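Record 1 of the preview.
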Amino acid sequence: MRNNFINKLIDLATQDPRIVLLTGDLGFSVLEEFAKKFPDRFYNVGIAEQNMLGIATGLAEAGFIPFVYSIASFAVLRPYEFIRNGAILHNLPVRIIGIGAGFEYGNLGTTHHLIEDIAILRLFPNLTIYSPINSKNASEILENSYQENFPIYYRISKNQLSLSDNLDYQENSHLTQLSNHQSKICVFGIGSIIEEIILAINPSLNHLVNQSINQSVNQSAVKFSSFAITKIDNQLGEKLLPIIKSYEKIITVEAHYINGGIGSIIAEIIAENQLPLKLHRLGVRELSDGIFGDIKFMHKKHNIDWESLVKTLKII
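->
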């Protein structure tokens, strides 16, 4: 997904000389083409993410549209105060490209995991979070949003996220309907976790990701409706409310701490509107114990994989 996103950024930069790209000494094999085509609009600031956001703030104030690129944990957590005091408080069009949120850098450990980003960034009323479901969606989101006059955080997968390519999904106002079964249950997810939701919808797709099929789960799979949330802003509650009201049970699944993410957003909507339905949240509930693996291992470890979702669907 990140390669397609940067390719679209190159296309836009060809048309719009305001676009500038900064990196914190990352993006090798991804950003070279941009640097080659626009050497006067590309800056490698080194391992200095706070300075990167500070420079981006100044560029935005000067009329440019700066994009900053890094592994998501380094793009969000390390320069968090600079994001707040710069782009947020001055309402400037700084674009943060965070690569591999959740557990996409699973083997590299806690420093490279980002399971707090939604919680700490959705606090700000003038920042929009985009989390596309596949490469095509990422390109469309970038093209349609890059000129917005406020800060944006793009949660871009370092992986391909291609399972949604096999679905006849429908997208409306950045709520992508992954399945629409006649059911009283609806599942919401965001980011790379949608691959797990899609596998729960159709376990036969496991061969596409080199997973073995657990027949005991597969044979009694539960039908459910599901949505991927690809945009978080002040209007999300208004968009979600009529959907949530049409179900009796809601499950949220996310590679994020259980507090502050999608599950918390939906819990707030339910509470504020006094809705008589049941909510079950799947997310990260414990601090790291120092045992790491790839993204599939981490999802299973934290019970946010497709099999855990199916098991939850049976008991909720």
